[in-house]
């Protein structure tokens, strides 16, 4: 599966993929009232204008087979982004949102995107990547509970859902509070 860096012309297609991927979750957050823009779209828009945005870590998976809705999402099957975060004063990365259009889910697109993002993060020398997500899903990529490494979540309620993927380096990984790029703390979905 081809994974490539997002091109400037992909932004609207990526927004469409993120909106479609998170629409069911947004409906659940809004007590079953569909139609609201998922907060992940608002977050992605805000991240694009933040100093934590790293264009080289905004990756897309082009759709390999046309579907009825391919035109509605610009031929993009999925998207992932890593943005600048910190553990104490040490620069690290925050992964997410990870989005796969519903027409392309359960076909390995998300896995390919995560593998590509982690490979790029390691190649760029990041000591670790943090995220909030399902331990059952992300453990396959080497993510472990952040507390096992002395990294504390921005919100203690995240518990086991806040995880880190630590890369082998000659120095131990940083310890302390994890701080995402600013839009993560200002976007509340409302």
Automatic annotation (TrEMBL):
N-acetyltransferase domain boundaries: 1-165
Entry keyword set: Acyltransferase, Transferase
SUPFAM superfamilies, alphabetized: Acyl-CoA N-acyltransferases (Nat) (SSF55729)
InterPro entries: Acyl_CoA_acyltransferase (IPR016181), Bact_Acetyltransf (IPR050832), GNAT_dom (IPR000182)
Gene3D superfamilies recorded: 3.40.630.30
Name of a matching Pfam family: Acetyltransf_9
Family annotation (CDD domains): NAT_SF
PANTHER family noted in UniProt: ACETYLTRANSFERASE, AMINOALKYLPHOSPHONATE N-ACETYLTRANSFERASE-RELATED-RELATED
Protein name per its UniProtKB record: N-acetyltransferase
